[in-house]
């Protein structure tokens, strides 16, 4: 590693370079599951000199270290998730908002999915696609 990089030790887990720590902070700072491009935009506010390649490589490192999760949706860009435990997602087909939820009964679902596919199951991940409350009400911002 270049000796010019400041090393910051996190509470636990691997030692992160400043760039990786910033990238991790960006992913952890919200619950909106940013894309690599969105992480890059936010990281640049903290560290103007950071390159997209650095952000991308940091995300890959953090994913391999188990600190973030990558969620790939068919054609769309991968989104990055601070929540690394198994959970399900609901995605808005209008605004692209992605929220976390836990569905009870995924164990039974995994079993029947394994039976149907003849695969040995490891995990199942559900994505509900539909309209988020704001889009359903025809509002662009949330109100109560
Ligand atoms: Zn929406
Ligand atoms: Zn999530």
Explain this structure to me?
There is one protein chain. By secondary structure, the protein is of the alpha+beta class. Strand 1 and strand 2 (16-17) form a beta hairpin. It folds into 2 domains: 7-79, Winged helix-like DNA-binding domain superfamily/Winged helix DNA-binding domain (Arc Repressor Mutant, subunit A); 85-136, Ferric-uptake regulator, C-terminal dimerisarion domain (Dna Ligase, domain 1, 2-Layer Sandwich). It has a 3-stranded mixed sheet with strand order 6-5-7, with no helix packed on it. A two-stranded antiparallel sheet has the order 1-2. The protein has a two-stranded antiparallel ribbon with strand order 3-4. The radius of gyration is 18 Å and the shape is globular. Helix 1 packs across helix 2, helix 1 packs across helix 3 and helix 2 (36-46) packs across helix 3. The chain has helices spanning 18-28, 36-46, 52-64, 106-117, 133-136; strands at residues 7-8, 16-17, 69-71, 79-81, 88-92, 98-101, 127-130. The chain is built from 5 helices and 7 strands, in the order E-E-H-H-H-E-E-E-E-H-E-H. It starts with 6 loop residues before the first strand and ends in an 8-residue tail after the last helix. The structure holds zinc ion (ZN) (2 copies).
């Amino acid at each position: 590693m270049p000796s010019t990089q400041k090393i910051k030790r996190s509470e636990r887990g691997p030692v992160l370079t400043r760039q990786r720590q910033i990238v991790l902070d960006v992913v952890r700072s919200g619950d909106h599951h940013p894309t690599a491009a969105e992480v890059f935009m936010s990281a640049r506010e903290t560290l103007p000199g950071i390159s997209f390649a650095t952000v991308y490589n940091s995300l890959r490192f953090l994913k391999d270290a188990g600190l973030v999760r990558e969620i790939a949706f068919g054609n769309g860009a991968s989104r990055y998730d601070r929540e690394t435990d198994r959970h399900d997602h609901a995605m808005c087909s209008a605004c692209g908002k992605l929220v976390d939820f836990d569905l009870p009964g995924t164990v039974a679902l995994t079993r029947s999915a394994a039976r149907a596919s003849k695969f040995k199951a490891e995990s199942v991940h559900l994505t509900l696609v539909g309209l988020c409350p704001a889009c359903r009400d025809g509002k662009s911002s949330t109100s109560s």
